[in-house]
Structure formats: structure tokens, C-alpha cells
Design a protein that fits this description.
Elements lengths: L2 E12 L2 E12 L3 E6 L5 H9 L6 E6 L8 H4 L3 E4 L11 H9 L8 H7 L15 H13 L5 E5 L7 H16 L3 E5 L3 H7 L2 E6 L2 E6 L1 H5 L4 E6 L15 E4 L4 E6 L2 H15 L4 E6 L3 H10 L2 H11 L1
Parallel strand pairs: 3-7, 3-8, 5-6, 6-7
Antiparallel strand pairs: 1-2, 1-4, 8-9, 10-12, 10-13, 11-12
Helix pairs in contact: 3-4
This protein binds adenosine-5'-triphosphate (ATP).
Adenosine-5'-triphosphate binds next to strand 2 and helix 1.
Protein name: ABC-2 type transport system ATP-binding protein
Keywords: Antibiotic resistance, ATP-binding, Nucleotide-binding, Transport
Organism: Jiangella alkaliphila
């Protein structure tokens, strides 16, 4: 099936500053692609050009097969956009706001249905200025899904939401994905990406430096095998094992390894042979957080080159 969103070598400059430096990715129908990255990495700047709100300074974009900027009139009715800051008139009620928005759409959902979807039905008669930050975020989402979009752009959709509202939002997003909606999302919450993303990209300083499924991105980082030795057994008695040995403060041994099974096998065989009890033994693959932090703390250009070579 053709990709619903295609982004090829896109660049975006603000004056002399190039905020987006050659970004390429695709999103298939019914897929959720998450853009992660450090502050100022260029996620919103990328999202805005894909939404057709601005023209890229280089590269090209297709949404539903069309240029979202040049063919805005054709693309706009089929997309839903939740900006980082919505900005509705403060004195209108929740229902009035949604009705006003629905008036700009060709075949909107009933307003009550949209408010129900985001759990705002009980706040329908309340002026926007009296909503909490999280409730405003949910109103932004209601408006984004009002037009039954084929493609949904969500810029940090759950920032400021309490844990229950976040989970409800995730549930709604999953439901939309099941209905075949394609979603491009930015987030600072790594658990959100882990929960929702079919594929993701980590951006740093205007470039994508890691991309793939969560498992693929995490696979770029070493796994950790950790345990404590009995007091009578010193660390120098450990055998040669693949990986880097780290001793943490409590006397706990950590091995960072690219070959978790080989490291674990070597360790367990040694322990059995020498009758050593390894306490609190754990073996875990890297987390998305580790992969993210590795990107955030390392030199950007070298990583970008690696990502380009790998692509
Ligand atoms: N209108 C603008 N004029 C000038 N510079 C801008 C403008 N918008 C964004 N920038 C700059 O472009 C860079 C990327 O910003 P962008 O908002 O895309 O990052 P982001 O990854 O979404 O960050 P955050 O996670 O903080 O929201 C930043 O250095 C920002 O200061």
C-alpha cells in the first residue's frame, strides 16, 4: 500500500538558521510514526511543513499523494491537526468552540460525539477560559478529530494531562489507528512512543539520528546483565566475559553487552562451576530512554552520518 505521508530530504530555515536539515521518513496507512527529540531538535518545525502550514526550504512532501502546501485546499479537509498551542476564544463554551470549528468542515462528526471521545461531554457548557490545561488539550484533540480525518497530526498531545487522561487519549488514538487513520505524533514521553508508535525517529539538531521500530532503535544500545557477588568473592575472580564491566556503588556488578545470551551463558556456567550464588541477577535489553539519552549526549554530525550510512 502506498505511503500516506512521504517526507524526502526536507529542510526548513528561519533566516540564517537551518532548523530542519534533510529529514526523510514515510508513514503508511493506519500507522503511527512518532518524532522524538531533544528540545529544539526540529520536531514541530518538521510537523508544521508536513501539515502544510509552511513551505519547506528544501526537499519535498506528499500527504495523501499531494503537496500539503501547494494543494492545501485539497489536503486540508482530510487531515486533523492538534497544534502545540491551540488558542481558542476564551469566552466561548466548549460546545460553542466545537460547533464553530465544525462549521468550517464538510462532514464533521456530531459535536457531542467528539466531546464524548475526549471525555469532555460533562464540560460542554463551560467557557474555555475556565478549563484546566489538560482539559484544553483534550478540546484541541476533539477539534482535531471532528472532521473524521484520514491523517492526524498530534504535536505533544498529552503534555499536561493527568495519568488517567493520558491513558484515555492513548486509547482514542489506538481506536483511530484501528479505523485506518494515519498518525504523525511528536512527544517528549518515551513511554507514549513505546505504547503507541509502530515506528519512530529520534531527532537531534535538525536531523534524524535513529529511526525504526522501538525494538530496532533500542537494539543500537547494549543490554545490561547485573548481579551482586557474595562478599567472599571478589570481582577479579570473574571470568572474561563479552561486554564492558561496570561496578556500581553498592558493590553490584553491571555488564553492558551487545551479546546478552553469550554473556549470561558464560556467567552462569562460571557461577555453577565455582559454586557462586549470584544475587539479584537480572538481564534486560536497553530501554528507549537509554537510546534517547545516548543520542542526546553525543556528537550530532557523526551520528547523522552513521544513520545515513545505515539507511
Ligand atoms: N519561527 C521561528 N523563528 C526562528 N526560529 C525558530 C522558529 N521556530 C522554531 N525556531 C527554532 O528552530 C529550532 C527547532 O524548533 P522546534 O520548535 O521545531 O523544535 P522542537 O523539536 O519541536 O522542540 P521542543 O521539543 O522544545 O518543542 C529551535 O532552535 C527554534 O528556536
Amino acid at each position: 500500500m502506498a505511503d500516506v505521508v512521504e517526507v524526502s530530504d526536507v529542510r526548513r530555515s528561519f533566516g540564517d538558521y537551518e532548523a530542519v536539515r534533510g529529514v526523510t521518513f514515510t508513514v503508511a496507512r493506519g500507522e503511527l510514526f512518532a518524532l522524538l527529540g531533544t528540545n529544539g531538535a526540529g520536531k514541530t518545525s518538521t510537523l508544521e511543513v508536513v501539515e502544510g502550514l509552511a513551505r519547506p526550504s528544501g526537499g519535498w512532501i506528499r500527504v495523501l499523494g499531494r503537496d500539503p502546501y501547494a494543494d492545501r485546499a485539497a489536503v486540508r479537509p482530510r487531515i486533523g491537526v492538534m497544534l502545540q498551542q491551540g488558542g481558542f476564544p476564551a469566552d466561548l463554551t466548549v460546545t460553542e468552540t466545537a460547533v464553530m470549528w465544525a462549521g468550517t468542515l464538510t462532514a464533521p462528526r456530531p459535536v457531542a460525539e467528539a466531546l464524548e471521545l475526549v471525555d469532555l461531554a460533562h464540560r460542554a457548557g463551560v467557557p474555555v477560559k475556565q478549563l484546566s490545561g489538560g482539559e484544553r488539550r483534550r478540546l484541541d484533540l476533539a477539534v482535531a478529530v471532528l472532521g473524521r480525518p484520514d491523517v492526524l497530526f498530534l504535536d505533544e498531545p498529552t503534555t499536561g494531562l493527568d495519568p488517567e487522561s493520558r491513558r484515555n487519549t492513548w486509547q482514542l488514538v489506538r481506536q483511530l489507528l484501528e479505523d485506518g487513520v494515519t498518525v504523525l505524533l511528536t512527544t517528549h514521553y518515551l513511554d507514549e512512543a513505546e505504547e503507541l508508535a509502530d515506528r519512530l525517529a529520534i531527532m537531534h539538531r535538525g536531523r534524524i539520528v535513529r529511526t525504526g521500530t522501538v525494538a530496532e532503535v533500542v537494539a543500537s544500545q547494549p543490554a545490561t546483565v547485573a548481579f551482586a557477588l557474595p562478599p567472599a568473592v571478589t570481582r577479579d575472580r570473574l571470568p572474561e566475559l563479552p561486554g564492558t564491566l561496570v561496578l556500581d556503588h553498592g558493590g553490584r556488578v553491571e555488564l553492558h553487552t551487545d551479546t546478552m545470551q553469550a554473556t549470561l551463558t558464560g556467567l552462569l556456567l562460571w557461577a555453577r562451576e565455582h559454586g557462586v550464588e549470584l544475587r539479584d541477577l537480572s538481564a534486560r535489553p536497553a530501554s528507549l530512554e537509554q537510546a534517547f539519552l545516548a543520542v542526546a549526549s553525543s556528537e550530532p554530525d557523526a551520528q547523522a552520518e552513521r544513520a545515513e550510512v545505515a539507511a
